[in-house]
Amino acid sequence: MRTLETWLPPAGIVFLLLLWEGCVRAFGISAFVLPPPTAVAQSLWTGLANGVYLQHALLTAGEALGGFVLALLAGVVLGALVAEVRWLEKALYPLLVALQAMPKVALAPLVIIWLGYGINSKIVLAGLLGFFPVLINTIAGLKSCDAGKVDLMRAMAASRWQTFRLVKLPNALPFVFAGINVAASFVVLGAVTGEFLGAKEGLGTLILLANNELDTAQIFSILLMLGLLGFVLYSAVRFAQRRLLAWAPLENLSST
Length: 256
Description:
Layout: H1 2-26, H2 37-49, H3 52-84, H4 86-101, H5 108-115, H6 119-143, H7 147-155, H8 160-197, H9 203-212, H10 216-244, H11 250-254
Helix pairs in contact: 2-10, 3-4, 3-6, 3-8, 3-10, 5-6, 6-8, 7-8, 8-9, 8-10, 9-10
């Protein structure tokens, strides 16, 4: 069964690719509408061989990583403050809920106007999309702490910081990582959105150029690069999650 579970995902991917290739050729679908996987693979190989994809992917990865760090720090710090300081929660929580309901992509033109077309605006956009999942899960995790444990720390004359560090924060970590897992995908979306609105480099810029040239195969190949970038970042988060939260099953964390 373990061997079967190991080979099922790659076998499923191969089956879908063969089905895709067969349908495109059997029904004579234009490559402009839906290119076959072989054409996408050729475009991907060409972009990797001449170094163009790698150059632009590194820039997009830097923007996404910068936004991820920004979202992580801002989300955890502000989430802890909102959860622990009652007057701050009452003052900020309604505003945070309103911002959460607002489409983040709609804020992109304002960020471009304020920060320009450089890398800073892309990092802020990526961080903005990843910020709210981390923030909301941090608040939920800290507020879900067992009241009995908190009362026990108070009975032992523990300080507020000791209670937070030894009880509340460990209890909130599964929730925090659940938000970080979501943010790992959102930051790539934020970086590419910024590149769509104005940039000279990056995978988002390559998609716009390929769209202007009506090169659908190249668009698919760049989407594969973006998917790989998101997968690497997500896998890094899961690896850190396994290291730091060995006591908590990943199945439970995924459903948090």
